[in-house]
Amino acid sequence: MPRRSSFFLLGVLTVAALAGCERRGGCTGSYCGTVINAALAEPATLLPPVTEDVVAGDIGEQLFLKLADVGMSTNTVGDEDFQALLANRWEWDGPVTLVFHLDPRARWQDGQRVSAADVEFTFNAYQDSLVGSPFRAKLRRIASVTQRDSLTAVFRFRERYPEMFYDAVYHMRILPAHLLRSVPRDQWKTAAFGRQPVGSGPYKFVRWQSAQSIELVADSTFFLGRPGIRRLIWRFTPNLQVAVTQVIADQADVREQLVTPENVQRARAAPQLKLQTFRGNVYTYMGFNLRAGGDTSKPHPIFSDREVRRALSMAVDRASLVKSALGDLGKVPPGPMSSLLWIWDPEIRQLPYDTAQAGRILSARGWRDHDGDGVRDKNGQPLSFHILVPTTSVLRRQYARLLQEQFRMIGVRAEIDELEFSVVTQRLQSGNYDTSILSRGNDPSPGSGITQSWTRAGFGGSNFGRYYSAEFERQVDRAIAAPTQDQARGFWRAAITTINADAPGIFLYSLENVAAVHKRIDNVQIRPDSWAALLRTWRIPQDQLIDRDRVER
Amino acid sequence: MILRRFVASVAIIFAVVTLVFVLIHIAPGEPCPSDEPVDPAVCSELKQQFGLDRPVPEQYWRYLVALAHGNLGYSFSLRRPVKDALVETIPFTLQLSGAALLIDFLLGLLLGIYQASRVNRMPDWVLGNITLFIYSLPTFWLALILLLLFAEKLGWFPVGGASHPIFCPAGVDSAFCFADRIWHLLLPAVTLGLVGAAGTARFQRAAMLDVASQDYVRTARAKGVPERRVVLRHQLRNALLSFITRFGLAFPFLLTGAVLIETIFAWPGMGRLAFNAILTRDHTLVTATALIASAVVVFGNLAADLLLELADPRLRVRADVTTEIVTV
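ok -> structure tokens follow
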């Protein structure tokens, strides 16, 4: 028996020794790095037009190039701040015609040249209802894309506006027509190409291990310069805590968003990590449903009253909430926007935190505590409502409790409905809710997100509360059509002031992103709208290489 | 007799699948895979494309017809056939459950025997309390604690996953990668197996003590048979009958535990697949995982019953007598 135990122990030790020690590989030099990203969710496909998945977008940045992309400023007006990618130059041929000249060095990873036919094919695919691209609506102002010659693509717009260039380049990743033409458009969502893509970007697809990882390898012949990191791996984890723990335990190199102050603290204590802060693209708000629960033809008995909404907004001390829940990680947004947008301006007029004034407004609207139970009421109806919040978000659940307490202070009863995300989505879409704490991601253009969430264009879509203000929409239209950024900024300021005064929601916080990156990685450039957009510029100096950087296969 | 029980097993699986299909369809929630509310237009296009907008009876009929042809359907959240996803994930769940079962039974059996041989003495008392403590722990809590302690703090084990993404990706087979797989498997399997082992130990101790008072054990001792032989040959052999029953009962526990453990340890098995499918309301995938899980449980129990009859001749005799009475 003792001999058997010894054998067992020896076996366990051998296994641990074999597995615990990383193998030494042979790669040396400036292009040997490996970066493992601790990703949260696995995408269903990597075919860009049919997915809005965040991880698919990050991987798409490496595989499929755009014609050009926004710069570090994330300015979306005009074309000055844009960086050339597949197109090495462009020119305006009249007020609504934009001509792109493709870089003749650009190649698909199967060796074919990237051509204007690919650009035309891509636009038609994104526009095709059979493909059902979520980006289709964002391209509605482009009338056509044609090829003048094999390396020249011509975009014609329906009208002239400041973000024409942005619309032409930002939403579409150019696809290989010769590989996708034979795939029926109604089958793109499930196409095999989406799990084994061939692109024109700095990295090539290697393998996809379901529920585990996706691996890319640098294309050493990439026409814009060899990427500094040789291998990129997205390792899928089921939740944020596991992802953060992987980075802290030195089993991954990057976690681009730590989200909570606790995670930041944990990552700060890990000696091998450095933290990098960048502007976030998400804002969170408590949205009021302005229509009766489940019946959009009737006004909501409480929130259709603008003054009541204003009073509830004034009852919330947003600055203190941000400080207590997020510390330095959050900011109070000056309206429905994240700090990513160039229209972010803390000077925009907002409703003040004033509980006395909030109480006076409610009393003036007939909401008084007639029966002395601590809750205001009117015509026998208590001033009471539900806050809908998804169980998946710890932060939003925490905020729901803080808001509940703040409302209680002015005699308003709020009950919290914590529900599974799919149920929250269903309730939002059917309008069957009072209020909900929602998070919204912005792309760099203020026009698209605000229009979809806060104007009539979003009815039946993302404007769940069905907020409508003719004045606000007029101001938004003027801002979108303004010829210069300075003029647009003025119109946006007016529009945001209007929506703040109407209070269709309480704009709670905009998260600043903190990325945890392994210290051995150099030249870490993070563009705020897409952390992975400049991954090809990251480097690991030769003297900093560790075993997993060197391994050869 | 076996045929009748086989048919009953199939009927049970069919009933489970039907129930799951109906429940997942009437449960509130939108089948739209996203962390944030997506545009309803995009969502409805997706539902239309995958036939999720059709009436439930029609969807059920289509599902049954497809199932009869061996087609488990198409997962809209994964954008691929359900069969492909299951083929990839089931082996991982089998590895995890198999390893956990091994730990559960080996450790549980040894502890149970040891406790029974030291009944009402200090080791029995200490182990009894320890096993009760472990048995009372929620599996997910134990998993999180072990993960934080052994993976994050001590760094002895990997934080999730089934293999090292660089050294041992798919298709790379070597002794090193085998060891790497075991290294990744140890923490989740121990978590799952430990709680089971605590239960098995208590179960086995009781069974051993039950047998200890039997005449043949007393006779063996009176004849001067050495104690080790009495325990291993006379007591354990008969106490193992209840162990086989425990084997059948272990399947539901292992499968339920696998959902939690796979999710916490990022183990790419069927449990994690089912968990994500429920969250995204992927009806086809949920039903398929329920089908597999119920089949494993039902046939596992059937196998346990048959093994029991094989091991215990008294049961066979009783079954024959019952059959005769019914026939007469």
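Chain B touches chain A through 66 residues (CB under 8 Å).
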